[in-house]
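ligand=pyridoxal-5'-phosphate
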Amino acid sequence: MKEKVFYLNGEFVPESAAKVSVLDSGFNAGDGVYDVTRTFAHRPFKLREHTQRLFRSLCYTRIDCGMSLEEMEAATAQVLERNLALLKENDDYALWQVVSRGVRSSMGNRVIGPATVAIYCVNVNFREFARHYIEGVPVVIPSTRRIPPQCLESKAKVTNKMNHVIAGFEAHQVDPRAIPLMLDIDGNISESSAHNFFLVIDGALCTPTNRNILDGITRSTISSLAAELGIPVVEANFTPYDVYNAAEAFLASTSPTILPIRTLNSVKIGKQVPGPLTLRLIKAWKREPISWPKP
Ligand SMILES: Cc1ncc(COP(=O)(O)O)c(C=O)c1O
């Protein structure tokens, strides 16, 4: 099979040649940021918004990627372009932009840089979540809490994912198919290890405030779609009690978009999966235009 082509530090190289040093501080310390854009029907969706968020994460972590936003966006589009021939008709890519602070000196631990910049594409693993659209996904609240923004700003998409990884292990010990739904330090629902969270209460679409979560691009797309459909959107604090009593609940993230939730801690949520409001949003999403390349 022909190899994919990845971008690494200014060059386009075959996947097997895209190697990073063991001294890279991304590897040693999770000292980096990333973002992931999905394609729909082989066209990137909201690449500009994802690249803008990448640059906000870079700003917060004081990493200089050595490229402008436009250059990063163009290199990402190039990665897609160079790998389109390998994509089957019904497949799509997740386009990863990953930046670490760079390589540490072996003569001491100081990062001497420059930043390591990698852009690559991974096939969206539809098999992983396809059945969840019909059956709904089980979610479990792990004992591990979401790191509070006083310790690490949750709006920044950082490569240190240990908080989420531990939460995932805890959920999988309860149910191997479960996704962890993390509470914040005050006991309010925050988000999953890789998705934002929505619930439906009295016909309103509710979601935690952006205080303790990644400001998801899928989340904001869903809120806009809801507004267009005349569905009220409420951002507030919610506890597990609110979820047990909700009419519907779902997760939201770039690759799967909207994933209906079947149970929270084995308690069934709502009467049907997906719920009627969730279905309206899924249908509305399908009508969402993918404008690429830009006019
Ligand atoms: C912790 C976390 N929350 C939420 C999301 C959803 O964000 P987006 O919709 O921008 O993919 C992600 C995406 O990977 C995530 O890692």
